[in-house]
Specification:
single chain; two-stranded antiparallel ribbon; 31 helices
């Protein structure tokens, strides 16, 4: 950044005074009238917004959280080995009783089945009579097999962790799984095994009361002190809300319970300083040209001051804060002006300080705060692509419709008066149109800011740089005119900034005026100076027109965007003609450094500059092909364009641009349409008899063209071929062509 002059310092100080003193003073006008004291236990007379993060301890909430944390701890369970043994032992005991019932008595006589049933009915009372009968009827071998299977089922059940109250469910699941895969005698599974396992099932784990209590105490101790938080920009207390103890402590922590009027101004200044710092850091980091211009900073400060005054006027004239008329705040107008006078990012950035002003002035109106942000952001695209004054009228229409819809929706969402909000949105749109159209010419003139209208001025062919290009490098001038037309068509087709692209195209080759005759399009009736130069020297001369153009553009104070077009229209492409010449001339064991033959510029990073790069090379190649073949067809031009676009993609020249493949196809189609218009087939006029006598017995067709002829004879040149073959003969004949 150049050293600051005294005038720069005055403008910067004026901008700072506006944003940190004048704006806060304006913001405090309505606040001075609303500083009513707030008392605990009474309805608040106003809404108070937290200026920053406020944290107040809440003992009751802390106790509740600790209690909840302790209750959330699961009981500590330990294995109950005794219970596990009892599950299996219960099953074994039943089968032991069955075996005992079969043993002979004192008289050595085996008991009858009826006696066995009677004995088991007393010892195994939970079995039904049918189940006992099934057990008694089993043979000794079957009884042993049933016993082993049932004991195994019980052992598997005992291995599970069964909590209190889960025994029945565990037994049910175990029986469902085991009975499905085991084969028991008829009726034994249902009558014996099922009730026996259900009877034996019991919890196999128990709660360790001491360990559980210890863990719950630990969980409660880990709960930190609960703090009630009031985030900056949110309401501590709303108007009409009864103030509780915590809210009162938060108000007292920041002196908001009823401060002296001068404290409102102090808070407004603090807010203004914070907003100014945020905006300033952003502009310095990402909008260096704005930061370096004292006039632009002063202009930005004037816009914000005017907005603060407008907000205060609306707030004071509105019947009440919730009446809906606050949707009159002209955030969209300021955002549009910032976009036109600076660029879209600054237009979007303007939403931040404007939202801060509205939030400070009307903290109880979240709908208006949201409207400020959304209307500002939505207004930016409406004026981001201005190409004529008429575009402002269209932006005014769409913004008015948008403000009405946005105000209506936000009033409905935040329960405001919808009809009044819609009317305010309508008035806002009309007023914004008047503000933008009325103030824009004045601001452009007073602050000397480049806008779309300034670009229209640069498009004038009488600009000194364009006049110099026409006088010293007529071929390059004509080439630039054609490239500008191609860029304009292509940018319009993909929705890019056609005005910026076409203006950048007009100036992209102005560096050639320094050495015009080293470029083939300017070599009319002269020898080729490259014939006597080494390839690396010729390549350097060709490459230098980019740096020369940048230097000339900056000396003439062309906009940075136009300079960017000059710097990137070749990217880092290869000056292939001289590179191939060097490779062919080099010894077999010598490697030619390709970097020497690449442009030292940078790759295009925007759609407009990428389109300019492609248009430049496509027009140059098509022009060279047309010099070789006067009757190029559309198919020839398609092959040229598609081949060059593919080469640029493969070479990585479009890696930093934001063009999609779909947009590239649209760009190619636009180029082809334009090139067909430039290099359409031309008829050959018949020669006069006297001329024929002086010519070769087999003369070549005349090169004269007849534009617009229908039915003319389109004679192909004998050396015609594919468009890809047209460039080399042209270069060999007239000298190396600029790869553009």
């Amino acid at each position: 950044m150049a050293p600051l002059t005294g005038r720069d310092w005055v403008q910067r100080v004026a901008a700072l005074v506006l944003v940190v003193l004048v704006v806060p003073a304006v913001m405090s006008v309505s606040a001075f009238l609303q500083d009513t004291p707030i008392r605990e236990g009474e309805p608040s007379p106003r809404t108070v917004i937290a200026p920053d993060l406020i944290r107040i301890s809440d003992p009751e909430a802390t106790e509740r959280e600790q209690r909840a944390a302790a209750e959330a701890v699961e009981p500590v369970l330990v294995d109950d080995e005794e219970a596990r043994r009892e599950v299996v032992q219960e099953v074994r005991d039943v089968f032991a009783r069955v075996r005992a019932a079969r043993e002979p008595g004192d008289d050595e006589r085996p008991p009858s089945r009826a006696e066995q049933i009677e004995a088991l009915s007393e010892s195994v009372a939970y079995l039904e009579e049918e189940g006992i009968r099934r057990l008694v009827n089993l043979s000794d071998d079957d009884l042993v097999e049933v016993r082993e299977d049932t004991v195994e089922i019980a052992q598997q059940l005992a291995r599970q962790q069964i909590e209190d109250g889960e025994a029945d469910a565990a037994a049910e699941q175990q029986l469902r799984n085991e009975l499905a895969v085991r084969a028991f005698p008829d009726g034994v599974a249902e009558g014996v095994v099922d009730p026996l396992i259900r009877q034996a099932a019991q919890p196999t784990v128990r709660i360790d009361e001491e360990a559980t209590a210890a863990q719950r105490e630990e969980a409660a101790a880990e709960v930190g002190e609960v703090v009630r938080t009031f985030v900056g920009g949110t309401a501590i207390v709303s108007a009409g809300e009864v103030v509780d103890e915590i809210q009162m402590q938060a108000l007292q922590a920041r002196g908001l319970e009823g401060a002296e009027p001068w404290q409102w101004l102090a808070r407004a200044i603090a807010l203004a300083v914070a907003a100014t710092a945020a905006v300033g850091f952003y502009i310095r980091a990402y909008r260096a040209r704005v930061w370096a211009s004292a006039r632009k900073l002063l202009l930005l400060a004037v816009l914000y001051t005017a907005f603060a005054a407008a907000v205060q006027a609306v707030a004071l004239l509105a019947p009440e804060p919730t009446s809906g008329w606050l949707f009159l705040v002209p955030a969209g107008a300021v955002a549009m002006l910032a976009t036109i006078l600076f660029d879209p990012p600054v237009g979007v950035l303007s939403a931040l300080p404007m939202a801060a002003v509205v939030a400070f002035t009307a903290p109880s109106e979240p709908g208006v705060i949201v409207f400020t942000v959304l209307s500002a952001i939505a207004s930016v695209p409406l004026v981001s692509r201005l190409s004529a004054r008429g575009d402002l009228r269209r932006a005014a229409l769409w913004s008015t419709l948008g403000y009405v819809a946005l105000a209506t929706v936000l009033a409905a969402v935040f329960e405001g008066p919808i009809p009044v909000a819609a009317a305010a949105g309508l008035v806002n749109g009309v007023a914004s149109a008047v503000i933008v159209n009325g103030s824009l010419p004045f601001l452009e003139s007073v602050f000397g800011v480049l806008t779309a209208t300034s670009l229209l001025d640069l498009q004038d062919r009488n600009h000194p740089l364009l006049r110099e290009l026409e006088q010293k490098a007529l071929g390059s001038y004509n080439h630039s005119i054609q490239v500008s037309t191609m860029v304009d068509r292509a940018c319009r087709a993909i929705g890019a900034d056609a005005l910026l692209g076409s203006v950048a195209a007009l100036y992209h080759d102005i560096g050639k005026v320094r050495r015009p005759y080293f470029f083939v399009e300017n070599q009319f009736g002269i020898g080729n100076p490259h014939d006597d130069l080494p390839p690396e020297v010729s390549a350097e001369i060709i490459q230098r027109h980019v740096s020369d153009g940048i230097e000339m553009a900056r000396s003439s104070r062309l906009p940075a965007e136009v300079v960017e077009g000059i710097a990137t229209h070749h990217g880092t492409t290869l000056v292939s003609y001289f590179y191939r010449q060097a490779v062919n001339a080099a010894a077999a064991d010598t490697k030619v450094d390709e970097a020497v033959y690449r442009y030292p510029g940078r790759k295009p990073s925007s759609k407009e500059m990428a389109v300019l790069m492609l248009a430049d090379c496509c027009e140059g190649a098509s022009r060279a092909a047309a010099q070789h073949d006067r009757n190029l067809t559309k198919a020839d031009l398609e092959r040229i364009v598609e081949g060059l676009v593919t080469d640029r993609i493969d070479d990585g020249q479009l890696d930093e641009a934001s063009l999609t493949f779909r947009e590239l196809k649209i760009v190619q189609d636009a180029f082809i349409e334009a090139l067909v218009g430039f290099y359409h087939p031309r008829i050959t006029y018949p020669a006069l008899a006297t001329e024929r006598a002086e010519q070769d017995p087999q003369p070549a067709p005349s090169s004269s063209a007849y534009d617009g002829a229908s039915g003319g004879t389109h004679t192909r040149q004998p050396n015609g071929g594919s468009p890809g073959q047209h460039q080399a003969p042209s270069a060999e004949r007239s000298g190396p062509a600029d790869p553009a």
